[in-house]
Queue: 2 jobs
Job 1
Amino acid sequence: MRAAVHTRFGHPDVVQVVDAPLPVLRAGDVLIKVHATTVTSAETAMRRGEPLWGRVILGLRRPRRRLRTLGLEVSGVVESTGPAVTGFRPGDEVFGFTGFAVGGHAEYVRLPANGSLARKPANLTFAEAAAAVDGASTALFFLRDKAKARPGQRVLINGAAGSIGTYAVQLAKHLGAEVVGVCGPANVDLVQSLGADEVIDYTARDFTADLDSYDVVFDTVTKSSFSKARHALRKDGKYIPTTGLTNNLWALYTSLLADKRVVTGMSVNKRALLPVIRDLIEAGQLRVVVDRTYPLAQIAEAHRYVDSGHKRGNVAITVVD
Ligand SMILES: NC(=O)c1ccc[n+]([C@@H]2O[C@H](COP(=O)([O-])OP(=O)(O)OC[C@H]3O[C@@H](n4cnc5c(N)ncnc54)[C@H](OP(=O)(O)O)[C@@H]3O)[C@@H](O)[C@H]2O)c1
């Protein structure tokens, strides 16, 4: 099969499409013929070997063999199932998350049937469905389960034009909160169209100067910090970043000693989240923003674009035309 691999860390051109062996199916696995996948900013960081401390996991000098084919989000058709699998059959259209195993940037990927896998939203293309996995479920995990966003709250979404951000704006509205989105000048219209009550262009105004204004600051791109954002939080407010080792220390400290808290987490198991996302999409209550779509052969170009740090929503890769 064709697969995109990177055998060293570095610029986008280290990613090359080569012939690779088919994944070996275990008893509880589903083999998926990948129709579409995405390139996320998490994967471009893995390709660069960043952050440096992450190389303990990624590989010290070059990518570990099992992490050379990236690909977190996939949508496609079940090709075959292991003997212990119930719940999925060949021919089922699915969308799912490979997590720490990665491997989605290929013509076939295996996923545990009891893992982050669900029936694909019927009203989406495969490219849209792949783009509805990680950003959407991560936004749901942080806003519903960690922030407990609800009516009466004012929720600020920093990075509102990104993958997590475009879903976060819509989901915070869906949960009943008043939503303020923060993005650059080119994306103000997009964020408004997603339902934000107010949009802040970060080149014109710094939201951290809005004293005592927000119950939740969801910093989807971790471009701010608790030190800056704390003054913008109301009493008992939460600052929720998506990355950053020091934020975990802040989370521990503030959980013990402060009335404004840092809340961190990792959305890895998406088993229960994906059906919720699918139902919202099928009900027309959640929109998927796909910025650009590239064929697998041009995946290095997709990496280059994601590296710009300014994609709108998601960048999809089509594997089957
Ligand atoms: N903890 C978890 O479970 C988890 C899960 C998934 C992802 N993540 C992490 O979450 C992070 C965000 O992922 P993502 O895929 O949503 O990012 P993304 O889509 O790559 O973010 C791109 C967006 O960032 C915006 N942006 C750039 N500079 C900004 C600034 N100074 N202020 C506000 N917005 C700015 C850009 O908007 P403009 O062009 O308008 O500037 C662009 O739309 C990544 O670091 C990823 O590793 C964590």
Job 2
Amino acid sequence: MSTNQSNWIVETGQAWKLYVAVAGFTGALLCFTFGIFSLVTGGERFLALVSCGLFLGCATFLWFTAVLRCSHCANKLVWTMVSTRPHSSWVVDLAALESCPACGGRLDRVA
Ligand SMILES: [Zn+2]
């Protein structure tokens, strides 16, 4: 009935993980932004804000890497894409995946 081209992340009900990751990275970016702004006003909180952003960014990335896996072979897809694709396009390539780069299983079907 519907020929909607939704990607496998949405198809398998994992879109919320993407939203949480985006929220986490946005929060990290906000910390950096406020950190840089705080430099203008004396820089008292610069270190705290930047380390907070760094921690949030790393934690979000590690979590995202750990939760988004192939349902067939449990391959860490985020990590595979980050380490094999250019930094500018791995997110797009990840969302556009049809089968697992490690085992070839269809990603839109749960094993
Ligand atoms: Zn796989």
